[in-house]
Specification:
Number of strands: 2
Shape: globular
Mean pLDDT: 94
Structural class: mainly alpha
Strand content: under 5%
Helix content: 55-70%
Largest sheet: 2 strands, antiparallel
Low-confidence stretches: none
Distance between the termini: 32 Å
Length: about 270
Amino acid sequence: MPFNEEGFLSPEIESLKSEIKDKFGGLFELGYSLNRYAHRIKFLLKSNAYDPQRIVSTILFLRILNSFAAVVRLAEVGQCTDAKVVLRSIFEALFRLRNCTKDACFVYEYFESDQKELLKTLNIIREDKRGTFSKLKGYATDELYEAVKENVKAKGIKKPSCEQLAVKAGLETYYDWCYRVLSRDAHAAPGALNDYLQVDANGTITGIDWGPQMKQIPLVMTTAATTLLIALDSVLQLFGLEDAEGQEFEQLQAKHLALASELQPARGD
């Protein structure tokens, strides 16, 4: 069936995929190289049941790696809005990963912050007036609510914002330049809808473009590569792998910088 009838599920997407790879071959080559390197590194991340810093860091790294693959797959067919939504979630995991690898105590703060979320959930269930959570009323008992509330108060538990996590991780620039911009796509902000409009030289709307978003592929792929490189740098340091694995990492980093510099004009289109 043609693309116009089945969209991104059409068999025609394979020919489009080939066209995109031909046009942006260097970007996808880097993406696949980073992916292979990261998957090799994952087997070197050794930990044990008594090392929560390494365990949590490994899990967050694997989450980022899997999401990176999703971004690449979406970019390969020009689904850049969807790729940017996944990219935003990568940054959320990345801010936490960077903090975990820098500070072993952060792991405990990270998990304790979930108590704050539990308290919020219990409040929602208890105050439900629409009957949405009527079957959960028995779970949100006074005893549980008071126990969680007292624990949060006694320990001074707080749930830091994404911005606070980014600042703590030393990644505030990425929060400002990347996360904030990607948030408009994740929340379907009015400005994000412009990506679907066709306009003439005078800015007059001439149509709706619901197909592949080719112009955004360089931005999506270079940003995705940035996140995986930061994630890799974080785990290489924590697990003491910089000396043994640093040379290939530096080569990939240099290739990324070169491609990003080449594509700078294209990213401003």
